[in-house]
From TrEMBL:
Residues 50-59 have a biased composition (Polar residues). Residues 60-79 have a biased composition (Basic and acidic residues). Residues 47-79 are annotated as: Disordered. It comes from the Bacteria. Residues 1-48 form the Translation initiation factor IF-2 N-terminal domain. It holds the Pfam family IF2_N. Transmembrane segments: none annotated. This is Translation initiation factor IF-2 N-terminal domain-containing protein. The lineage of its organism: Bacteria, Fusobacteriati, Fusobacteriota, Fusobacteriia, Fusobacteriales. InterPro entries: IF2_N.
């Protein structure tokens, strides 16, 4: 699979995707370079893990906002 194909599959521009996969230790110089099946598997796992971590962070932020809203309501009722 070529770099630009996997980039498109994951919603990246080729240049941003190459920056991202460099963080995983995969250094490709051109968007037309071919990725090995091992590299593709590694990239997919890392990207999926990043999405899962982002979703966990988002849900934690939502929970904190909900708790803060409840505290504000309680304070307003007491006054």
């Amino acid at each position: 699979m070529k770099v630009h194909e996997l980039a498109k599959e994951n919603g990246f521009t080729a240049s941003k995707f190459m920056e991202e996969i460099r963080k995983f230790g995969i250094d490709k110089k051109h968007h037309m370079n071919v990725l090995s099946s091992e590299e593709v598997d590694l990239i997919r796992k890392k990207l999926q893990k990043g999405v899962q971590n982002q979703n966990q962070n988002d849900s934690s932020k939502t929970e904190n906002l909900n708790k803060n809203e409840e505290k504000l309501k309680e304070t307003a009722v007491k006054r």
